[in-house]
């Protein structure tokens, strides 16, 4: 490969608009920056701010109906404006690589990852098939994957989140492009994996790759970026050296983004020692299933925990550690293989030959409410918000005549306009949907709220609002809460007590103050280290 | 851990039980339907309605074939014989049912295979290059909708008139030679192809929005390679599922098509057997078709797992 002349990306006054049936929508307006090899420019903003559109227009994949205009858009000596498709294909992959968010779907889920990486080479006719196979193994090693021989033959769904994200990065850097665009490269990952990917990116930067990093997470960006561009609704609201933006943000939106980071919110005040009577007790729960390889293994084993009235118990651990399985057993949705659960002083779940019959549980069902990560899939898409809430009220035994009034109260409680009652879940924003889910949960006046990653799918500023709301409702109604999250910042902010799970077992239990500040188990320590690694560089705004 | 061979045996037993149930249901339905259709089977045995049989001859024949016994007994005997693999003799053709199948099944299987190839060729050629293309997309899409709505017998008559009688390109009738299969295969395959294309078009359109497609483009892949190497595989499953159903539709429509083109085959034979009250032959053909159906379902299942290896992981 001959040395490429001056591989610098110049973007001046880039604007992207889309033709829609209702006229033109402007996605990005007047964006300018320069990206040199070995440098990192970060585009930060919430969903809909135009980050991904920018990334795509830089490699000429704006999408149907998209119109790109710029005073200058060039890579080295090549003008990228109105480039014919043929020339674009030569640039994509070879001179600019791209990494998308979730490797589970960003790599072809039907093929082994090795073939995907080989394809990046084959498209640009690099080497013979045999040389490519060898190069694939080299690349896998380069991104820190052990046993590359085995991994190359596995599909994304057979690899862990960290491995497949690395494989995706390997496929993007296969042709050693001088620039790499990474669109939310760590968003769906566990903090420990995020930290590893972060390391990988910084070593790529040190080797001279220019990085355009796109994220909604200022904490992640702060570790790498030389320059930060903050986007809101397609407009640049603030731009400058990373150090300046992180320490002295000027624009209110940047400040909101910085403050919304849950790890910067003060920790929950230490609650008095647990004296309240126990609301729910789980004893020795285990759940055994056959894995995809046919090997039977425990998903969780010997899980014992107690929830007291009015307190929040945080359940933390990496994905696959059994948090959700535990919560589903506690909710009475999954029958465990051993163990018992009692709720409100009576048997709720019992393993073995005599399970607790559903008719004994039904009168108590309404005292337990659930909130999921993605409320959209837990709503009937054809129902309006009114129907959804009215259904919950009926379940709580509220007479139909009162529904309109009660729904008005509920919507006010979760700070949604009354007009939203007529809308369907598909037509409202993610934050609004999660509020509807919360309204539905509290409509039945429960004692216990089970929240499974309730804010992970939301933008940080919306996250902060939803967490505020949950906190307030919990205080006002005296709710007990089982709170599942992989985000240490959220846990620190919301929880009184914490249970740490690893590979289906509880490895540490204690008050949040104890576990999060003085972790005893090495795994908890590594979880917390990874989390601080990601956010420590953010100075606390006074 | 359950040993591998036990898991395979379990899966195999489940499939076999399923297949057995289908065959049993087909045999039973066949018995019921023939009881409900008007006409006297004894007349059929003696050689059709034109035979002037005395009441005595009729009674003798009725007794000889067990048709004077109570229905449940007849049904029991019928099932027992089928279970032993004795399909008996065809009343109307005076030869073993197995022999009739042996001579009539191959032309029908050939016709179905040809129609199936036509259908998939049509579906792929009509969708893969045209989905989301400005002009070709809508045009191909309307063509698919029209094709899916065409009744095969009508299309058959049209093709027969145009290409045999007007242009004389293909023989109008018969089972001999490669040319004789072209028109019937088109008549059967085009409507099925329309259905396959409609579902494939929708899944293809969805698959084009998969993030892995964007990744492939970002690698510098050209549109054709993206469509053929990534999108197509994601889009095939609904069509494969529909194909298993399509086999059934092909057999049903083959009855009409074989009549129109005067082809040998079990479709035509089935029509004659039903109208002639030829119970053993009807049962034999129906069970044969049911078997084809079962095999098609089995093959579709295998194909699905080949296309999407994740299914194997889920079902094992």
Write the SSE topology.
The complex is a heterodimer of chains A (542) and B (316).
Chain A: E1 9-20, E2 23-35, E3 40-44, H1 51-58, E4 66-69, E5 72-75, E6 78-79, H2 85-91, E7 96-99, H3 103-106, H4 113-123, H5 129-142, H6 148-152, H7 161-172, E8 179-183, H8 191-206, E9 210-215, H9 218-222, E10 227-232, E11 235-241, H10 242-247, H11 252-260, E12 278-290, E13 296-308, E14 312-316, H12 323-330, E15 338-343, E16 346-350, H13 358-365, E17 368-371, H14 385-395, H15 403-413, H16 430-443, E18 448-452, H17 460-477, E19 480-484, H18 488-494, E20 497-502, E21 505-511, H19 512-517, H20 522-535
Parallel strand pairs in A: 3-9, 3-10, 7-8, 8-9, 14-19, 14-20, 17-18, 18-19
Antiparallel strand pairs in A: 1-2, 1-4, 1-5, 5-6, 10-11, 12-13, 12-15, 15-16, 20-21
Helix pairs in contact in A: 4-5, 4-7, 5-7, 7-8, 8-20, 11-17, 14-15, 14-16, 15-16, 16-17
Chain B: H1 4-36, H2 41-46, H3 55-64, H4 71-83, H5 97-127, H6 136-149, H7 152-166, H8 179-207, H9 211-218, H10 223-260, H11 266-275, H12 279-307, H13 310-315
Helix pairs in contact in B: 1-4, 1-12, 5-8, 5-10, 5-12, 6-8, 7-8, 7-10, 8-10, 9-10, 10-11, 10-12, 11-12
């Amino acid at each position: 490969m001959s040395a490429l002349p001056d591989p610098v990306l110049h973007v001046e006054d880039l604007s992207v608009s889309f033709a829609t049936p209702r006229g033109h929508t402007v996605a990005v307006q007047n964006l300018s920056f320069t990206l040199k090899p070995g440098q990192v420019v970060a585009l930060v903003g919430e969903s809909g701010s135009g980050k991904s559109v920018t990334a795509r227009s830089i490699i000429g994949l704006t999408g149907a109906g998209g119109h790109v205009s710029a005073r200058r858009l060039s890579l080295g000596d090549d003008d990228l404006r109105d480039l014919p498709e043929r020339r674009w294909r030569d640039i994509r992959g070879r001179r600019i690589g791209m990494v998308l968010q979730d490797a589970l779907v960003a790599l072809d889920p039907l093929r082994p990852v090795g073939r995907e990486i080989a394809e990046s080479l084959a498209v640009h006719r690099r080497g013979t098939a045999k040389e490519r196979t060898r190069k694939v193994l080299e690349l896998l090693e380069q991104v820190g994957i052990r046993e590359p021989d085995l991994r190359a033959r596995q599909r994304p769904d057979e690899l862990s989140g960290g491995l497949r994200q690395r494989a995706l990065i390997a496929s993007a850097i296969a042709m050693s492009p001088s620039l790499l665009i990474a669109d939310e490269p760590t968003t769906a990952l566990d903090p420990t994996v995020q930290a590893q990917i972060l390391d990988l990116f910084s070593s790529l930067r040190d080797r001279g790759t220019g990085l355009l990093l796109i994220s909604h997470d200022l904490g992640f960006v702060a570790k790498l970026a030389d320059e930060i561009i903050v986007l809101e609704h397609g407009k640049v609201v603030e731009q400058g050296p990373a150090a300046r933006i992180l320490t002295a943000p000027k624009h209110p939106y940047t400040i909101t983004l910085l403050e919304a980071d849950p790890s910067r919110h003060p920790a929950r005040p230490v609650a008095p020692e647990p004296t309240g009577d126990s609301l729910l007790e789980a004893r020795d729960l285990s759940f055994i299933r056959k894995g995809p390889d046919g090997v039977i293994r425990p998903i969780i084993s010997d899980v014992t925990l107690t929830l007291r009235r009015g307190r929040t118990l945080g359940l933390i651990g990496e994905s696959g550690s059994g948090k959700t399985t535990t919560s589903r057993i506690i909710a009475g949705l999954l029958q465990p293989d051993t163990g018992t659960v009692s709720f409100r002083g009576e048997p709720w779940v019992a393993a073995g030959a005599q399970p607790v019959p559903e008719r004994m549980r039904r009168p108590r069902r309404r005292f337990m409410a659930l909130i999921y990560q993605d409320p959209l899939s837990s709503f009937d898409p054809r129902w309006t918000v009114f129907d959804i809430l009215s259904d919950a009220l009926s379940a709580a035994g509220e007479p139909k005549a009162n529904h309109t009034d009660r729904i008005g109260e509920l919507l006010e409680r979760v700070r949604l306009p009354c007009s939203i009652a007529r809308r369907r879940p598909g037509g409202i924003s993610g934050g609004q949907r999660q509020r509807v889910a919360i309204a539905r949960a509290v409509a039945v006046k429960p004692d216990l709220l089970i929240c499974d990653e309730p804010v992970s799918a939301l933008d940080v500023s919306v996250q902060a609002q939803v967490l505020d709301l949950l906190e307030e409702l919990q205080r006002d109604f005296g709710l007990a809460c089982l709170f599942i999250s992989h985000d240490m910042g959220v846990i620190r902010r919301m929880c009184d007590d914490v249970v740490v799970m690893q590979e289906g077992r509880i490895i540490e239990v204690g008050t949040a103050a104890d576990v999060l500040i003085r972790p005893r188990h090495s795994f908890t320590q590594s979880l917390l280290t990874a989390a601080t690694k990601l956010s420590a560089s953010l100075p606390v705004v006074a | 851990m359950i040993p591998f061979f036990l898991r395979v045996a379990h899966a195999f037993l489940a499939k076999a039980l399923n297949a057995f149930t289908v065959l049993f249901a087909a045999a039973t339905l066949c018995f019921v339907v023939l009881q409900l259709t008007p006409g006297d089977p004894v007349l059929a045995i003696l050689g059709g309605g034109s035979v002037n049989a005395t009441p005595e001859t009729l009674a003798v024949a009725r007794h000889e074939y067990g048709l004077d016994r109570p229905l449940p007994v007849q049904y029991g005997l019928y099932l027992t014989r089928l279970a032993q693999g004795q399909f008996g003799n065809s009343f109307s053709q005076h030869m073993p049912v197995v022999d009739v199948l042996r001579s009539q099944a191959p032309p029908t299987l050939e016709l179905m295979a040809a129609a199936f190839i036509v259908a998939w060729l049509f579906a792929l050629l009509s969708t893969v290059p045209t989905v989301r293309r400005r002009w070709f997309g809508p045009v191909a899409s309307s063509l698919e909708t029209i094709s899916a709505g065409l009744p095969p017998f009508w299309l058959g008559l049209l093709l027969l008139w145009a290409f045999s009688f007007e242009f004389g390109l293909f023989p109008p009738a018969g089972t001999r030679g490669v040319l004789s299969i072209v028109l019937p295969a088109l008549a059967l395959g085009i409507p099925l192809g329309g259905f396959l294309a409609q579902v494939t078009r929708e899944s293809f359109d969805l698959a084009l929005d998969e993030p892995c497609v964007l990744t492939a483009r970002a690698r510098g892949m050209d549109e054709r390679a993206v469509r053929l190497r990534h999108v197509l595989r994601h889009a095939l499953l609904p069509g494969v599922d529909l194909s298993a159903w399509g086999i059934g539709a092909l057999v049903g429509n083959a009855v009409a098509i074989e009549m129109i083109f005067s082809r040998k085959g079990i479709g035509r034979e089935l029509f004659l057997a039903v109208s002639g009250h030829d119970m053993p032959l009807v049962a034999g053909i129906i069970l044969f078709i049911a078997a084809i159906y079962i095999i098609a379902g089995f093959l579709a299942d295998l194909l699905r797992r080949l296309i999407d290896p994740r299914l194997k992981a889920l079902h094992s």
